[in-house]
Amino acid sequence: MNIILLGPPGAGKGTQARRLVDERNMVQLSTGDMLREARTSGTEMGLKVAQVMDNGHLVTDEIVIGLIRERLTGAQPEGGYIFDGFPRTLAQADALGELMADVGQSIARVIEMSVDDDVLVARVTGRSTCGDCGEVYHDVTRPIPADGACVKCGGRTFKRRADDNEASLRTRLMAYYKQTSPLIGYFHAKGNLSTVDGLAEIDTVAACIAELLA
Ligand code: AP5
Asked: Is 127 a known active-site residue?
C-alpha cells in the first residue's frame, strides 16, 4: 500500500513515517531528506537548493520530481512507499500520479495531518535528530535520553536543521498554504483523502494512522 503524508512543517510527517517503516516494512521517500543529503554531498544541485531551503521556500518541481523518479525505478517495496513531504504542488501531484502509473502502482491513501499553526513554532524550534539514524526528538515532548544515546541506534551526535527557526518557519507555512494546501481539495476529489488530528500525542496519531491502513 502506497500512501502520502500531507501536512505543514512540524505536523509530524517524519515522526510517523519512521514508525511506519519500522512497523509495516514500508519505504519512506522524504524529499526533504533527499535534498538535505544532496546539500551535504556538495553536488551542484545541493549547492543550488541549500539557500532556497534555509529561507523556507520550495525547491523547483523539476528537481524534486527528478529525485522521486530516480527512487521509483527498480523493484517495488513489499510494504509500499510513504511519500513524506511530496507532493507539495499540484504539478508534483500530477507528476506522481504519472510516475506511479508508469511502474504499475497507485496511491491508496493520502493522510492529512491537521495541526494548529501556533504549536508548529514550538515543534520545529525544539526539534533535533540523531546524526546517525535520523531518529526525531523534541526538547520537551520527546527529549534525547539522559544518557545521551539515541534510543534507536545508540548514536551520540544530534543535529538541528538550519531552517528550524521562526523566520524560516513563517515562510514555510506561507508556502504550505499557498502551494500545498490546494492538494487537500485535489485528493479529496480523487476520493482517497483522510484526516488525522496531528495535535494528539505521537502514539495516538500513530494509532489513528494504523486504523486507516488496516
Ligand atoms: P521537509 O524536510 O519536508 O520539511 P517540512 O515539510 O517542513 O516538514 P518537517 O520535516 O519540518 O516536519 P514534519 O512534519 O516531518 O515533523 P516531524 O515529524 O519532524 O522540507 C524541508 C525543505 O525542503 C522545504 O522547506 C523545501 O525547501 C524543501 N522541500 C522538501 N520537499 C519539497 C518538495 N516536494 N517540493 C519543493 N521543495 C521541497 O516533527 C516535528 C517536531 O515535532 C519533532 O521534534 C517531533 O518530535 C515533534 N512531534 C511530532 N509529532 C508530534 C506530536 N504528535 N506531538 C508532539 N510533538 C510532536
From this structure: yes
